[in-house]
Design a protein that fits this description.
The structure is a homodimer. By secondary structure, the first copy, chain A, is α/β, with parallel strands linked by helices. Helix content of chain A is 40%, strand content 17%. The N terminus and C terminus of chain A are likely disordered. The structure holds a DNA duplex.
Chain lengths: 240, 240
DNA sequence: CCTTGTGAATCTATTCACAGCG
DNA sequence: CGCTGTGAATAGATTCACAAGG
């Protein structure tokens, strides 16, 4: 065919998307250490992936490297940030202010990557009213969620950090106010409308995957250790 | 039962291993609800994956189904448990008893899936000596790790739940006592010997992946193609 | 020389489609 | 019949290998 159809932004595979934050973190470390230029080989060593993978990943964002030299660290960071959308403000609502919810809100990666705690909810009276996190957001009762997040107060991302039995109900509430993306930490498969983006993080699945490989290894003496990615999370974290 | 060594032919892809705990959890729910037989179609619906994927996954464990009927729920659970190795005792050491470490130790999936808290470590004097988790294990100082876990006390899995700057040091200590598998929650790429199994769980990566897809979606909406599509993730998401 | 960027080849995972069996 | 189990086809991701360019 004669003309190439105008491609909307180059399609980036999910496997690449998951590695981009890792590259970004390493590049920031390197920049702070005074490394202003970095080769795919060097970045690959630090991320424990192959250099070809780094080049392929980065080439999907555009041609930012200089042949014979490498990539400009600072510029590459800015391009990855732009691709990831972390140069924007991402208000996040967290439901379930137990240890997990607190860990998330207090984590380094949260505030430093453009994510902002917009609202916190729990059902436990002893937690409601408490100020949590670096930005000291007050925990509200889950019943206040609908009115609290309605309209222009609707955050971009909802985090479900409740026990499993409450997860679907909480998710329904988040969907009702119009939240377009949900990150679920509860060990349960959730149902959402097809236009809602849903991802999972499941601590116990990771432990069970480890026990699988360890059992395998102890049974197979010659065990060819599964060469797992050094980077990122479960590729199948999208069971929803 | 199972005496045969079928290493080559029965190799299970990682993508399948990650789904097995999900199937197992759903099957337990179903069994508790009185469902003693289940079809691949039904299980697939509950897990939000395709029926073909369920059948392919399960067939890798063996031929446990009955044609025309489906799978016996209880038997299937036992077979998945066996494959995952969760019918064994898995002593786990957790380093870093902040919110994340506590969330893990207290999580449902931990004790209920054969994982046992063998030891807890931190560096904060205000935490050391505290009894944490359902089994009330006393937190020890990180300096006691080497002697505490030496020899026959060496756990099967080490969990790194420290801040990023401490993660590599802690990992080195865990590797030194002979721990064969490490689950890292710190936002940092770790270096381990090739015979140590290493997996990552990174909360901030998941958030950044979400912001990537959400940004993509918001840009597509303003583009010339108003076509509604479940963005990015699930191949089976369009089942709706 | 260097290192990037990328088609081609390879490896891995998913889906299709139907034979085979209860 | 209905449903499993599985080769064959397809889609996706990684690695290879080298041309192109500073």
């Amino acid at each position: 065919m004669s003309g190439e159809q105008e491609q909307r932004s180059r399609r980036i595979p999910e496997a690449t998307v998951v590695r981009l934050p890792v590259y970004e973190r390493i590049l920031n470390d390197q920049l702070r250490a005074g490394v202003t230029t970095i080769s795919s080989e060097h970045l690959a060593t630090l991320a424990r992936v192959s250099a070809a993978k780094v080049r392929k990943d980065l080439s999907l964002l555009g041609s930012f490297g200089t042949r014979g030299t490498g990539y400009d660290t600072e510029f590459l960071i800015s391009q990855i940030d732009r691709a990831l959308g972390v140069d924007r403000d991402w208000p996040v609502a967290v439901v379930g202010i137990g240890n997990l919810g607190r860990a998330l809100v207090n984590s380094e990666g949260f505030s430093s990557r453009g994510f902002r705690v917009a609202a916190l909810f729990d059902i436990d009276p002893s937690v409601i009213g408490e100020e949590v996190g670096p930005s000291s957001v007050v925990v509200k009762h889950i019943d206040e969620l609908p009115e609290s997040l309605a309209g222009s107060n609707c955050p971009a991302i909802g985090v479900v950090a409740t026990p499993a039995p409450a997860a679907q109900m909480v998710t329904d509430a988040l969907v009702s106010v119009g939240i377009p993306s949900i990150l679920n930490f509860a060990p349960r498969v959730l149902t959402v409308p097809t236009d809602v983006l849903l991802r999972y993080v499941d601590l116990s699945i990771e432990l069970q995957v480890m026990s699988f490989y360890q059992r395998l290894r102890s049974e197979e003496v010659e065990g060819p250790l599964p060469q797992l990615r050094a980077v990122g999370l479960t590729p199948g974290a999208e069971l929803g």
